[in-house]
From TrEMBL:
It comes from the Bacteria. It comes from Blautia caccae. InterPro entries: Signal_pept_SipW-depend-type. This is SipW-dependent-type signal peptide-containing protein. Residues 1-26 form the signal peptide. Keywords: Signal. NCBIfam families: cognate_SipW. The lineage of its organism: Bacteria, Bacillati, Bacillota, Clostridia, Lachnospirales.
Protein backbone atom coordinates (compact mmCIF):
# COMPACT_ATOMS: atom_id res chain seq x y z
CA UNK A 1 0.00 0.00 0.00
CA UNK A 2 2.92 2.39 0.80
CA UNK A 3 4.65 1.89 -2.58
CA UNK A 4 1.46 2.48 -4.47
CA UNK A 5 0.96 5.74 -2.62
CA UNK A 6 4.44 7.07 -3.46
CA UNK A 7 4.12 6.09 -7.12
CA UNK A 8 0.86 7.83 -7.42
CA UNK A 9 2.30 10.99 -5.94
CA UNK A 10 5.30 10.94 -8.29
CA UNK A 11 3.14 10.62 -11.37
CA UNK A 12 1.13 13.57 -10.31
CA UNK A 13 4.20 15.74 -9.78
CA UNK A 14 5.60 14.65 -13.14
CA UNK A 15 2.50 15.76 -14.96
CA UNK A 16 2.68 19.14 -13.38
CA UNK A 17 6.36 19.54 -14.25
CA UNK A 18 5.83 18.65 -17.91
CA UNK A 19 3.01 21.16 -18.25
CA UNK A 20 5.19 23.91 -16.76
CA UNK A 21 8.38 23.24 -18.68
CA UNK A 22 6.68 22.64 -21.99
CA UNK A 23 5.02 26.03 -21.83
CA UNK A 24 1.67 24.60 -22.79
CA UNK A 25 -0.90 27.35 -22.59
CA UNK A 26 -3.87 26.41 -20.49
CA UNK A 27 -6.77 28.12 -18.82
CA UNK A 28 -7.45 27.82 -15.15
CA UNK A 29 -11.02 26.71 -14.78
CA UNK A 30 -13.23 25.67 -11.93
CA UNK A 31 -16.61 24.28 -11.28
CA UNK A 32 -18.66 23.84 -8.18
CA UNK A 33 -22.04 22.44 -7.36
CA UNK A 34 -24.46 23.80 -4.80
CA UNK A 35 -27.17 21.39 -3.88
CA UNK A 36 -30.17 23.42 -2.76
CA UNK A 37 -31.92 21.66 0.06
CA UNK A 38 -35.66 21.71 0.54
CA UNK A 39 -37.96 20.21 3.10
CA UNK A 40 -41.43 19.02 2.22
CA UNK A 41 -44.15 20.61 4.30
CA UNK A 42 -46.94 18.76 5.97
CA UNK A 43 -50.65 19.38 6.36
CA UNK A 44 -52.30 17.36 9.11
CA UNK A 45 -55.20 18.05 11.45
CA UNK A 46 -56.75 16.57 14.56
CA UNK A 47 -60.48 16.58 15.27
CA UNK A 48 -61.32 16.66 18.97
CA UNK A 49 -64.28 17.43 21.24
CA UNK A 50 -62.77 18.78 24.49
CA UNK A 51 -65.99 19.34 26.44
CA UNK A 52 -67.73 16.23 25.11
CA UNK A 53 -64.76 14.10 26.16
CA UNK A 54 -65.05 15.30 29.75
CA UNK A 55 -68.26 13.33 30.23
CA UNK A 56 -67.84 9.85 31.71
CA UNK A 57 -68.70 6.57 30.03
CA UNK A 58 -69.33 4.51 33.12
CA UNK A 59 -70.59 1.41 31.31
CA UNK A 60 -67.73 1.54 28.76
CA UNK A 61 -69.97 1.19 25.72
CA UNK A 62 -68.37 4.02 23.79
CA UNK A 63 -71.19 6.46 24.49
CA UNK A 64 -70.79 9.20 27.13
CA UNK A 65 -73.43 8.95 29.82
CA UNK A 66 -74.93 12.30 28.81
CA UNK A 67 -75.75 10.91 25.36
CA UNK A 68 -77.62 7.81 26.54
CA UNK A 69 -81.40 7.52 26.81
CA UNK A 70 -81.98 11.03 25.51
CA UNK A 71 -85.41 12.55 25.88
CA UNK A 72 -87.02 14.71 23.16
CA UNK A 73 -85.82 18.31 23.02
CA UNK A 74 -82.79 17.48 25.18
CA UNK A 75 -79.69 19.68 24.75
CA UNK A 76 -76.22 18.23 25.39
CA UNK A 77 -72.67 19.49 24.99
CA UNK A 78 -70.85 18.61 21.76
CA UNK A 79 -67.98 20.80 20.55
CA UNK A 80 -65.98 19.60 17.51
CA UNK A 81 -62.70 21.53 17.20
CA UNK A 82 -60.06 21.11 14.47
CA UNK A 83 -56.38 21.70 15.28
CA UNK A 84 -53.62 22.20 12.71
CA UNK A 85 -50.97 19.69 13.82
CA UNK A 86 -48.89 20.02 10.67
CA UNK A 87 -46.18 22.41 9.56
CA UNK A 88 -47.94 24.59 7.00
CA UNK A 89 -50.94 26.88 7.19
CA UNK A 90 -54.12 25.18 6.06
CA UNK A 91 -57.62 25.91 4.90
CA UNK A 92 -60.13 23.84 6.87
CA UNK A 93 -63.43 22.20 5.98
CA UNK A 94 -65.73 19.89 7.91
CA UNK A 95 -68.76 17.73 7.28
CA UNK A 96 -71.40 16.90 9.87
CA UNK A 97 -73.71 13.98 9.10
CA UNK A 98 -77.04 14.20 10.93
CA UNK A 99 -79.41 11.20 10.84
CA UNK A 100 -82.95 12.01 9.75
CA UNK A 101 -86.27 10.19 9.69
CA UNK A 102 -89.78 10.80 8.44
CA UNK A 103 -91.39 11.55 11.81
CA UNK A 104 -93.91 13.70 13.62
CA UNK A 105 -92.52 16.32 15.96
CA UNK A 106 -94.30 18.60 18.40
CA UNK A 107 -94.18 22.35 18.78
CA UNK A 108 -93.19 23.88 22.11
CA UNK A 109 -96.87 24.00 23.13
CA UNK A 110 -97.32 20.28 22.38
CA UNK A 111 -99.25 20.62 19.13
CA UNK A 112 -98.17 18.21 16.42
CA UNK A 113 -96.65 19.06 13.09
CA UNK A 114 -97.33 16.96 9.99
CA UNK A 115 -94.95 14.05 9.42
CA UNK A 116 -91.84 15.21 7.56
CA UNK A 117 -88.24 14.26 6.95
CA UNK A 118 -86.60 15.66 10.09
CA UNK A 119 -83.06 15.81 11.43
CA UNK A 120 -82.88 13.93 14.73
CA UNK A 121 -80.37 16.47 16.07
CA UNK A 122 -80.08 20.23 15.57
CA UNK A 123 -77.38 22.74 16.42
CA UNK A 124 -76.34 26.35 15.89
CA UNK A 125 -73.19 26.91 13.87
CA UNK A 126 -70.66 29.12 15.65
CA UNK A 127 -69.17 32.31 14.14
CA UNK A 128 -66.15 31.61 11.98
CA UNK A 129 -67.83 28.79 10.08
CA UNK A 130 -69.80 29.10 6.85
CA UNK A 131 -72.26 26.51 5.56
CA UNK A 132 -71.55 25.54 1.96
CA UNK A 133 -74.24 22.98 1.20
CA UNK A 134 -76.07 19.77 2.00
CA UNK A 135 -75.73 16.24 0.64
CA UNK A 136 -78.48 13.63 0.99
CA UNK A 137 -77.21 10.28 2.28
CA UNK A 138 -79.40 7.48 0.97
CA UNK A 139 -79.94 3.77 1.31
CA UNK A 140 -82.59 1.48 -0.15
CA UNK A 141 -85.32 3.16 1.90
CA UNK A 142 -84.50 6.73 0.84
CA UNK A 143 -82.74 9.61 2.56
CA UNK A 144 -81.42 8.53 5.96
CA UNK A 145 -79.13 11.46 6.80
CA UNK A 146 -78.15 14.97 5.78
CA UNK A 147 -74.44 15.66 5.45
CA UNK A 148 -73.65 19.34 5.90
CA UNK A 149 -70.46 20.91 4.52
CA UNK A 150 -68.83 23.83 6.33
CA UNK A 151 -65.80 25.99 5.61
CA UNK A 152 -63.70 27.68 8.25
CA UNK A 153 -64.11 31.08 6.69
CA UNK A 154 -65.18 34.68 7.05
CA UNK A 155 -67.80 35.59 4.49
CA UNK A 156 -66.43 34.37 1.15
CA UNK A 157 -62.76 33.96 2.11
CA UNK A 158 -61.28 30.87 3.77
CA UNK A 159 -59.47 31.53 7.04
CA UNK A 160 -55.87 30.31 7.10
CA UNK A 161 -55.29 28.18 10.19
CA UNK A 162 -51.70 28.50 11.40
CA UNK A 163 -49.70 25.48 12.53
CA UNK A 164 -50.45 24.69 16.15
CA UNK A 165 -53.67 26.70 16.18
CA UNK A 166 -57.24 25.46 16.55
CA UNK A 167 -60.53 26.55 15.05
CA UNK A 168 -63.49 27.67 17.06
CA UNK A 169 -65.90 24.77 17.65
CA UNK A 170 -68.17 24.14 14.68
CA UNK A 171 -70.99 24.18 17.23
CA UNK A 172 -71.11 23.90 21.00
CA UNK A 173 -74.18 21.77 21.70
CA UNK A 174 -76.83 19.66 20.00
CA UNK A 175 -80.53 19.30 20.71
CA UNK A 176 -82.60 16.20 20.02
CA UNK A 177 -85.73 16.52 17.90
CA UNK A 178 -88.97 16.94 19.85
CA UNK A 179 -90.30 13.71 18.38
CA UNK A 180 -93.61 12.18 19.37
CA UNK A 181 -93.10 8.81 21.05
CA UNK A 182 -93.99 5.51 19.42
CA UNK A 183 -92.28 6.14 16.08
CA UNK A 184 -89.59 3.49 16.42
CA UNK A 185 -86.87 5.79 17.70
CA UNK A 186 -86.80 4.48 21.25
CA UNK A 187 -83.70 2.48 22.23
CA UNK A 188 -82.17 3.04 18.80
CA UNK A 189 -78.49 3.95 18.44
CA UNK A 190 -77.85 6.87 16.11
CA UNK A 191 -74.49 8.18 14.98
CA UNK A 192 -73.49 11.70 14.00
CA UNK A 193 -70.13 11.42 12.16
CA UNK A 194 -67.98 14.51 11.78
CA UNK A 195 -65.04 14.67 9.37
CA UNK A 196 -62.31 17.29 9.02
CA UNK A 197 -60.46 18.20 5.83
CA UNK A 198 -57.37 20.38 5.30
CA UNK A 199 -55.46 21.71 2.32
CA UNK A 200 -52.41 23.97 2.03
CA UNK A 201 -53.02 27.70 1.65
CA UNK A 202 -50.00 28.70 -0.47
CA UNK A 203 -49.68 28.25 -4.24
CA UNK A 204 -53.21 26.93 -4.42
CA UNK A 205 -54.28 27.01 -8.05
CA UNK A 206 -53.41 30.65 -8.62
CA UNK A 207 -54.13 31.79 -5.07
CA UNK A 208 -57.67 30.51 -4.60
CA UNK A 209 -59.26 31.53 -1.29
CA UNK A 210 -63.02 31.39 -1.86
CA UNK A 211 -64.50 28.35 -0.06
CA UNK A 212 -66.17 26.95 -3.18
CA UNK A 213 -62.98 27.27 -5.24
CA UNK A 214 -60.76 25.75 -2.55
CA UNK A 215 -63.17 22.88 -1.94
CA UNK A 216 -63.22 22.14 -5.66
CA UNK A 217 -59.43 21.80 -5.66
CA UNK A 218 -59.62 19.46 -2.66
CA UNK A 219 -62.36 17.27 -4.14
CA UNK A 220 -60.65 17.07 -7.53
CA UNK A 221 -57.42 15.84 -5.96
CA UNK A 222 -59.13 13.37 -3.64
CA UNK A 223 -61.75 12.10 -6.10
CA UNK A 224 -64.71 13.16 -3.97
CA UNK A 225 -67.84 12.99 -6.08
CA UNK A 226 -70.47 14.15 -3.61
CA UNK A 227 -72.33 17.24 -4.77
CA UNK A 228 -73.46 19.60 -2.01
CA UNK A 229 -76.53 21.71 -2.80
Amino acid sequence: MKNKTVKGLAVSLGLITIMSIGGISAYFTDTDTQTNKFTVGKVTVDLTEPEWDKYPDKDNNGIPDQAEDLTPNKTIVKDPVITNTGINEAFIFATVEVPCRNIIVANADGTRKPAALTDLYSYTVNPGWVKMGTYDVRDGSGVIAHRYLYAYAASNVCTALEAGKATTPIFSEVTTANAIEGQGLEQQKFEMPIHAYAIQTSDLNGGKTAPADVWTVYTNQNSITEKYN
